[in-house]
Amino acid sequence: MKPSIPKGTRDFSPTEVANRTYIINTIKTTFENFGFQPIETPSFENSETLMGKYGEEGDRLIFKILNSGDYLEKVTEQFLADKNSLKLTPQISEKALRYDLTVPFARYVVQHQNDITFPFKRYQIQPVWRADRPQKGRFREFYQCDADVVGSDSLWQEIDFIKLYDTVFSNLGLKGTTIKINNRKILSGIVEVIGASDKLIDFTVALDKLDKIGKEGVENEMISKGISKEAIAKVQPLFDFSGNNLNKLTSLENLLITSEEGKKGVSELRFIIENIQQLGLQSADLEIDVTLARGLNYYTGAIFEVAAPKSVSMGSIGGGGRYDDLTGIFGLKDVSGVGISFGLDRIYLVLEELQLFEKVALPKPTVLFLNFGDQEALFCMKAIAELRKDGIKSELYPEATKLKKQLNYADKREIPFVVIVGSQEVEKQVFTLKNMISGEQTSCSLSTLFGVVNK
Fold first, then answer.
1. Among 130, 221, 237, 405, which is least packed by CB within 10 angstroms?
2. Are 273 and 375 found together in one domain?
3. What is the pLDDT of residues 54-110, one digit of tens each?
């Protein structure tokens, strides 16, 4: 049977790993430049930590881990006979792979609250897993690169995150991205104005699918969730908002004139927009998108989503928002937070499509010692040990095979120097050094060899 990997996962070649590392290092350097500290959390959490934090759709996409041993041992016959997977799952699975990095981070903050200095700025770059349907730019295993601040409700944090997005994309040479912004208080105000406050979650989950299923699809989903046609008619202006950001803010103020919550959301949005106009952005655009909802339940204030340049067919490459009560679900009340995430895998595909990767130098030795037998190999290994002490990447070809084969290996890996050691070199305690670019070949001592290859 031919070996394979699960759908939605990938192998990465040395070049792909080098390109991914370039993106990660760019993001990591910017995170640290903005004052964030790194943490890591386990790849799997207790199910109770994750379940119920992402809404019904999110819960469905969490990979559950079967209990060790006989996982059916404690399950009653009645549970098995009912064939109700929702009730059976907690009986046979106590742990799950993390769905994102935000909820584990909230758990981390609560668990380590006595050791943390607030406001706490952390970044985290680790893989997450979702039982989603694989498609272009959507995988079941992928990396998230998150930055969050908890312990501050200042809107200057949102402004700094917009600048952080802009800085990372500028450093990657990625121009033409659009940072879309909205506020969950505005969405709460809208459902209040149309008389559907009890349907906030259904409303936002449906609205968040506008770019995937279109206006008619969103309306049909809202109707199926019990939102009346009359209420939907009142939100029609949402689908046709136009003008610049300040025009949109004015339109929102008029729409939400009777909602205190909605007006507060508009005020927060105005503060962010006006200050970003003063500060300026290098390569990204900031755009109010009143249909942006982000379906995750824990957002309470500003929400972000980053769209790739229009020339690339790709979904969002980043997103995030403000959450005022996420840690409250773990017992720590009144700790506000805000965070963003970079979609590493989608950013990779965008950079690749736009040919923004420079040729990456793959890890390789500076010097390859050819192998002419055990006695010669031992002599070479002693020299290699000295070179490695000095940080010079060196290796011995493992087999005493044909000279042509060993030189071909050096050529294919683009190794700049080859050392030839035969019985005469061992006897004279010297090395024959060949420059693979110029073809020049010289006999030298180990100290001279050091000097040449270490330039």
1. 405
2. no
3. 877 788 899 999 888 777 777 766 666 667 666 667 667 789 999 999 889 999 999
